[in-house]
Design a protein that fits this description.
Blueprint lengths: L1 H19 L3 E5 L3 E4 L8 E5 L4 E8 L2 E5 L5 E5 L3 E2 L4 E3 L3 E5 L8 E6 L3 E6 L6 E5 L5 E5 L3 E2 L2
Antiparallel strand pairs: 1-4, 1-7, 2-3, 4-5, 5-6, 8-11, 8-14, 9-10, 11-12, 12-13
C-alpha cells in the first residue's frame, strides 16, 4: 500500500512537468491514414476519424509522429493536422456540469468517444471547460477526457 501511495505521489509530481515540457495536442482536419513510417510508400496502419485529438511526438519533413487516444503511435502527413484542439471522452459517460464542482447541475452527458472542444485553459485544477458541437457547454473532470 505504501508503494502504491509513493507511485501515486510520483505521478502527481511529474504531471506538471509534462505540461512544462510543452506536450502539444492537435486534432485531425479530416479522416486521415496513419502510416508506420514518414512516407506514403510506408505501410498504412489504420484510418483515424476527423477531429480526433492526437499528441504530437515528433515532426520530420512534412510528417508528424503522433500518439492517438488509444496510445498507438503512427505517422500522419502534417497537412492532416489542425491547430484547433479537441478532447475525446474516455469515460463510459462523462458528466458535464454547470460549474466545476460535483454538486453542480448537470448540463449534459457525453458518451465515450464523443469529441468536445476545450473552451478555456483557465479552469480550476482537475476540471476542463468544454463545448459540445451542439452548443452546450460546461465543466467536466479532466480524468474523463483525453487531449489535455
Amino acid at each position: 500500500m505504501k508503494r502504491l501511495r509513493a507511485l501515486a505521489a510520483l505521478a502527481a509530481a511529474l504531471a506538471p512537468a509534462a505540461f512544462a515540457a510543452g506536450i502539444e495536442y492537435r486534432s485531425l482536419v479530416d479522416v486521415a491514414v496513419m502510416y508506420d513510417a514518414p512516407s506514403k510508400q510506408a505501410r498504412q496502419q489504420y484510418v483515424i476519424a476527423r477531429q480526433t485529438p492526437v499528441e504530437v511526438v515528433r515532426t520530420q519533413a512534412g510528417w508528424v509522429k503522433v500518439r492517438e487516444p488509444g496510445g498507438m503511435l503512427a505517422w500522419v502527413e502534417a497537412s492532416a493536422l489542425s491547430p484547433q484542439r479537441t478532447l475525446i471522452v474516455t469515460a463510459e459517460k462523462a458528466r458535464v456540469l454547470a460549474r466545476p464542482e460535483e454538486a453542480a447541475p448537470l448540463v449534459f452527458e457525453a458518451e465515450r468517444r464523443v469529441v468536445l472542444e476545450p473552451v478555456s485553459e483557465a479552469a480550476p485544477a482537475g476540471w476542463a471547460r468544454v463545448k459540445h458541437r451542439d452548443g452546450q457547454s460546461g465543466y467536466l473532470r479532466i480524468s474523463e477526457v483525453w487531449g489535455l
